[in-house]
Amino acid sequence: MVGELERPLVSNNVDLAQDQSNDLTRNYDLDGECHLNAALLRPPRTQGLVHKQRLSSASRRLALGDSVVGDVSDPLDGILVGQTLKRLVVTEHLVELQTHGRPENQSQNLRFGTENVRPQESVPNTDAISDQRSCLSLQVVSGPSCGLHCSVLSTSTARLPLTLGRVPPSYLLLKDYEVSGKHAMITWNLNKLRWELVDMGSLNGTLLNSCPIHHPDPGSRLWGDPVELASGDTITVGTTSNIYVHISSHNERLVPFGVGMTSDPMSLRRGGKKLPMEDVCYYHWPLPGINQFGVFGICDGHGGVGAAKSASKILPEMVATILTDSVKRERVVSEQDASDVLRDAFSQTEASMNNYYEGCTATLLLVWADADENFFAQCANVGDSACFINMDGKQIKMTEDHKVTSCSERLRIEGIGEPLKDGETRLCGLNLARMLGDKFVKQQDSRFSSEPYISQVVHLKKSSGAFALLASDGLWDVVSFKKAIQLVVQARERHSTETENLAEKIAEVMLNEARTQRTKDNTSIIFIDFDSISTVSSCKVRP
User: Fold this and answer.
1) Do residue 236 and residue 275 come from a single domain?
2) C-alpha–C-alpha distance, residues 452 and 400, integer Å
3) What CATH number did the domain enclosing 220 receive?
4) What is the pLDDT of residues 349-390, one digit of tens each?
5) Sheet with 184-189: strands ordered across
6) Among candidates 111, 94, 93, 32, which has minimal Cα distance to 64?
7) Going by C-beta distance under 8 Å and a sequence separation of 6 or more, which residues neighbour residue 256?
8) Which run of H or E residues covers position 66?
9) PPM-type phosphatase domain: from which residue to which, for each copy (predicted)?
């Protein structure tokens, strides 16, 4: 019975492949991503906001990008209970490898192209992993388990090796019938100081950056050879489950407080198809070259995810660029006010975006520390992705709602001499009056704006129980600020004896509440616990 349980309900008939290589996976593109979108994450040696296009869209099909956030539908829709799923698409390259065995140079180059040659038995990359302490993070970016993520330290012997599979006790449990019960394994090679991936004799094989790493004869159920993992790699199991890899060393600066980030596209009805994902959430700590400043943000797109992706890349870059000016940076610290920085960053981001028919909300929380390690926070936003801080039991609202129906927006619009008519709740079909992008409608109606609301500065007192919660309207449509605070307090009490990943658990509690309340919109959440120490890496982006 165990043997049957571990076999996926998929045949491995490679003869089914007939010029279907274009359908094997989505054509993802890492350009502009800091990664988990994503995302997701960046290798330690490219700290901050320096983006590197790792894969070309013509030769690599498993990087992250446009299709990840849009392809969240359930691949099992229409499948009858008990029906065996067959792999319908296999690339010609994969068929050739399975027929003739692994090419001679496969072990020397696991990436297509010449710019990323990485010998299989090379000396460990000392830039990324300089000693025995390394953190591996995995994010499922497409497939039935999209959004699932986990992290493990190389020193966490109780959690290693890490197994990927369809049945317990797999550490990364994938609800995908094209995945074997025990599909693949990731281990920390103590001798070579590196993470290694090995296929465990899966029926449908495992790909690393589109290249097979399983045994040349998948039907033999023999294990493949261990292959080194690097930050930015994409693992594919089945045909739709893509897993993004991020590796950080102990030298990579960690966020000095707890951070939990999670998201779910949600569905219109329980058990229904997932909605297209148009949210992007991210954080960067520290900003490149600016050790005491970091940003946390959410962009909720409409009309597509393009504007949200652009804003989530450009906005933190603009903040970082402005703060590289030592005079401006010192003024923020001395005056304890970053209003000018935030206002200029939003203005420059809007000018840099070229999204005429897509737009997005943008909520950005800037956090910085002074020389005495006192932390301060200030927020700027357009749209309805809200943020609040709770400190000493008091709620501090950090954002303003920019729906057309909000009082503040109706007053602003009235002030420019073009008041809304009675009962008018939309402008050009949009329920938001402030956003980034949407250049076309802004040309048609001058009542639209990209001017951000700037909050007060909050001094985050030590031992005050302070936390911040940022979320897209998928949460706020069904959960009030007051209810959110109650959930956080309850979760803290429930996990009071735990210190590891507490912020992540609280973020998941909030997301589960949105599911329970049957929200009908994409939901993204960032929870920041200023009273705890973080174990997460410095940069993360997620769709």
Assistant:
1) no
2) 9
3) 2.60.200.20
4) 999 999 999 999 999 999 999 988 899 999 999 999 999 999
5) 172-173, 162-165, 184-189, 194-199, 227-228
6) 32
7) 285, 369, 375, 533, 534
8) helix 66-70
9) 258-530
